[in-house]
Amino acid sequence: MRLLLRFVGPLAALVALLATFISAQPAPAQDLDSVLTKLDAASKNFHTTTANFEFDTVQTDPIPDTDIQAGTVYYQRNGTSFQMAAHLQKRNDRPAATTYILSHGVFRLSDTGKEGDAKTYNQAAKYESYLRLGFGASGAELREKWNIKYLGKETIDGIATDKLELVAKDPNVLKLFVKVTIWLDTARAVSLKQVFDEPDGTTRTCHYTDLRVNQTLPSGAFSFNK
Length: 226
Hints:
Elements: H1 2-24, H2 29-43, E1 48-59, E2 65-78, E3 81-91, E4 94-95, E5 99-103, E6 106-110, E7 119-121, H3 128-131, H4 139-145, E8 146-156, E9 159-168, H5 171-176, E10 179-185, E11 190-197, E12 203-213
Antiparallel strand pairs: 1-2, 1-12, 2-3, 3-4, 3-5, 5-6, 6-7, 8-9, 9-10, 10-11, 11-12
């Protein structure tokens, strides 16, 4: 028995080491191809999404700081037309009314949520494809903009997801984000979680819950308050 235990102990350690090594290996290319093919199919049926979100920003330099925003986000895609809006309800546990709207290539921002206080940015069209990341984007669209690595499957809020690491091909976007990690529900072409890593070490994590796909959006989804 002692001899057996002496043998089993090192063997168990070897098995554990081997399992760690295997899990650390890059996923086969066919796994990534399968995920992107599923996205190609699902994106054709994507029209709208409503979700609650929490957006956590953690800064380590020069001064450690955390910013937590929460609210509701809307996405709508009709052919090549795309709209998104985020309506904040809380920021660091305090009431907030900031509203962000991207519609037909124009980005508008109001810190009060009111139309009269909105600022307009007309050069947003070229970044539109990045804003719909994980919401209706096809596999082909992801390949066009990102170098992609498949990181395996992971369960988020009880839903099976495929985890992808994205590195932007555009040098200007790469200056903003070293990499983006997304957890995709490929059957619906939506993401449940996104992590944006910035060059200075800042991390921005967006967690989406209560996703409602292809349901009618509120009439004021893409509007500010009067």
